[in-house]
Amino acid sequence: MRRIIPAALLAAAALTGCREGTVHDKAYLRAAAVDGDRITMSFFSDIGPVEVAAASPSEAVSAAELRLGREVFTGFTELIILGDCPPAETLSELFTEWELPSSCITAAGRGSLLLDTSPELLSGSVRQAQAQGELPDCDIVTVLSGLLGKKKTAQAPELGSGGVSGICQF
Question: What is the 3-state secondary structure (H, E, C) of the chain?
Answer without folding.
Answer: CCCHHHHHHHHHHHCCCHHHCCHHHEEEEEEEEEECCEEEEEECCCCCCEEEECCCHHHHHHHHHHHHCCEEECCCCCEEEECCCCHHHHHHHHHHHCCCCCCCEEEECCCCHHHHCCHHHHHHHHHHHHHCCCCCCCEHHHHHHHHHCCCCCCEEEEEECCEEEEEEEC
